[in-house]
Design goal:
Elements: E1 2-4, H1 27-35, H2 57-62, H3 68-81, H4 88-98, E2 103-108, H5 114-120, H6 127-134, E3 136-140, H7 148-161, E4 167-171, E5 174-175, H8 177-180, E6 183-185, E7 188-189, H9 190-199, E8 203-207, H10 209-213, H11 215-218, E9 226-227, H12 229-232, E10 238-241, H13 248-261, H14 274-277, H15 288-292, H16 303-307, H17 325-328, H18 337-340, H19 352-355, H20 375-379, H21 383-411, H22 416-423
Helix pairs in contact: 3-4, 4-13, 21-22
Bound molecules: iron/sulfur cluster.
Iron/sulfur cluster binds at residues 281-282, 285, 287-288, 291, 310-312, 316, 318-319, 338, 343-344.
Length: 437
């Protein structure tokens, strides 16, 4: 039985799914199996639940549902996601083709299972999904079919069989108050489970904002003493993929990076991969031209909203948020919040529930914008002045963006606190702020 103070529901993980019976097959894998016309006795069905083998992933992938052309396209996409030259696509394909499978233990603490939903969410099996699925997800509380002692035995067996050879994925925050009683699994505190599994993991990947820094359970000084994974595993390799939820494409790319280069991607001081969290959303946003032109949504459903104008005045936090949402997108890369018409809430940033709220209140000053030009001034039509300032703005924006990024990178060799300071550095006061909104 899993008992969590924060979970939306208390549920038994003793359910079995479909035809899984008492097997260790994850539910989503069974779902795919049911969709395919491949007989259940086919080799593909033997893939799931296998341990680390010499068998390459690609052979398994191609042997099932994905053409080589599609796989190469996926590899090129991964190169783009990792901000690598296109030529790396072939190298990624070769690396993944010959890579052994990696056991994964996925633990859930104080969470809403949103990242698990993101992990499973796809309208049809995608290559990324298959690559993740082809990992040996030996333990996942929400989706595994095994229950009770058998589930615990699976987790223990993986840790024993692959010391420093498995990936630990943690979803949800870890409560420390009152000896961690606010989240227990099988009678054990979640804290003890993360410490134990993280001790000998190849790496730990914290998915979602709660696992990043405590997230919602720690917002406003939450009562459970929630912390993120890094606080619990000092000195260990911890990759943070914050977001509410994280983008599964970034999880895929992180693993593909390891398969290709035998090391995890470079991160900032907060443990976030630079390929995914190295740029401001504002600098990648498809509505940026409207921001520059002073064309803003002023009310939900107004003309600006219908025309896809900038959401800055509706509270968009894109100008202060580092993430690749505009390029990676969600739901099979079809959309992301700003494209759908809602401002960014800054969910990839530290303590965003407290620091980025109220979510519908505009930022006072936009980092990256020229110090002496506010959005209101642009909006008021000082375009004549802005014409002259455009070059200044472009230069200032670039310099300031570079400066902030450099601070983060420089701080990455220092301490997380230093990086947080760099990210939170107050902007110089604007010369004048309009009163609109
Ligand atoms: Fe896009 Fe938001 Fe920046 Fe406007 S303020 S350009 S909507 S990120």
């Amino acid at each position: 039985m899993r008992e969590c103070a924060f979970a939306h529901r208390r549920y038994k993980r003793h359910a079995t799914f479909g035809t899984a019976g008492t097997s260790m097959l994850p539910r989503h894998t069974l779902r795919y199996a049911e969709r395919t016309t491949t007989p259940r006795s086919s080799p593909r069905m033997t893939v799931v639940g296998m341990k680390l083998t010499d068998e390459g992933i690609l052979s398994q992938v191609l042997g099932s549902r994905v053409s080589r052309r599609t796989f190469l396209k996926f590899s090129a996409g991964m190169a783009a996601t990792l901000a690598l030259p296109a030529a790396y696509g072939a190298r990624i394909a070769r690396a993944v083709e010959g890579a052994p499978r990696i056991p994964v233990i996925w633990l859930e603490g104080q969470d809403c299972a949103g990242n698990t939903e993101g992990f499973l969410r796809a309208s049809h099996p995608s290559v990324a999904e298959i690559v993740l699925d082809t990992l040996s997800v030996d333990y996942h509380e929400t989706i595994m079919a095994a229950a009770g002692d058998a589930a615990e035995a699976s987790r223990k067996a993986t840790m024993d069989a692959y010391p420093n050879g498995y990936i630990l994925v943690v979803e949800g925050s870890i409560p420390l108050n009152d000896d961690g009683v606010y989240c227990t699994v099988g009678g054990r505190t979640f804290e003890s489970m993360v410490r134990e599994a993280g001790e000998n993991a190849l790496a730990t990947i914290a998915v979602g904002s709660c696992a990043f820094d405590g997230g919602l359970p720690m917002a406003g000084g939450g009562p459970t003493g929630a912390v993120g994974v890094r606080d619990l595993l000092p000195g260990k390799t911890v990759i943070n993929l914050p977001g509410c939820p994280m983008n599964v494409q970034n999880l895929t790319a992180t693993i593909v990076h390891y398969l290709t280069f035998k090391e995890f991607p470079a991160t900032d001081a907060l443990g976030r991969p630079l390929f995914a969290y190295g740029q401001l959303i504002h600098d990648q946003c498809e509505r940026r031209a409207h921001y520059e032109s002073g064309e803003y949504v002023l009310a939900w459903g107004d003309e600006g909203a219908r025309k896809g104008w900038c959401l800055y005045k509706m509270g968009c936090k894109g100008p202060e948020t580092y993430a690749n949402c505009p390029t990676a997108r969600f739901n099979d890369s079809t959309s992301w919040p700003v494209k759908a018409g809602h401002g960014c809430v800054g969910c990839t940033m530290p303590n965003f529930w407290d620091q980025m709220s109220p979510f519908y209140q505009r930022l006072p000053v936009v980092p990256g914008f020229a110090n002496d030009v506010t959005a209101d001034q642009v909006g008021l039509g000082l375009l004549g002045a802005v014409t002259g300032l455009t070059a200044v703005h472009a230069g200032a924006s670039y310099v300031r963006s570079r400066r902030q990024r450099n601070q983060v990178v420089a701080a990455s060799v220092a301490t997380p606190a230093a990086a947080a300071t760099a990210l939170d550095e107050p902007e110089p006061p604007a010369a004048e702020e309009g009163g609109e909104q």
